[in-house]
Amino acid sequence: MQQVPLFPLPLVLYPGAPAPLHIFEPRYRQMVADCLEHGRDFGIVYHDPDEHGPFLMERGRVGTLAHIEEHRALPEGRSLILVRGGHRFAIEREREMAHLYYEADVLPFEDDAVPRSPAIREARLQTLELFTAVIEALDESPEDMPAFDVAHDLSFQLAPAVHIDLRWQQSFLELRSEAARLERLDAVFQAAVEARGPDVG
User: What is the pLDDT of residue 14?
Assistant: First the structure.
């Protein structure tokens, strides 16, 4: 179990993905200062106060650890930071508020164990092929595509390219199988390719 500060945001952070953040609320200015001082990560949990109401740190809520890679101080105590997603976690229990910001005990939220199989590599290659077809259909240059590592989980490498409803993104984050995540991406990419019709090919 790990104790982490929590930052509820209308944002889903995927493992390995970067996210720029503007820190201006006093509680999160303090959180960032503490994380920088002690070399700690904080957790980002998807939360839209207009939709979900107050943030209650419910047990089982899934989020992603955020590692601060860059920090730029601004006037009045504000700052710009660049974070990168680490491991997923699930809230186990909230902690008494010793600081202005939220803190909770969390547990790792990992994929279900599955035997290594050549099938997952084939699934990754198929998803990457569909993604490439989408890029080409949008008249984007494949030369501008980042390098993807098919030796490791491809789903979270590609997911940031899917600009879809945040609830979809959160449900994607909570899937505990790379195969299931790749299937979800395949459906999105296939629909995008088909929407281009005769222009694709």
Answer: 98
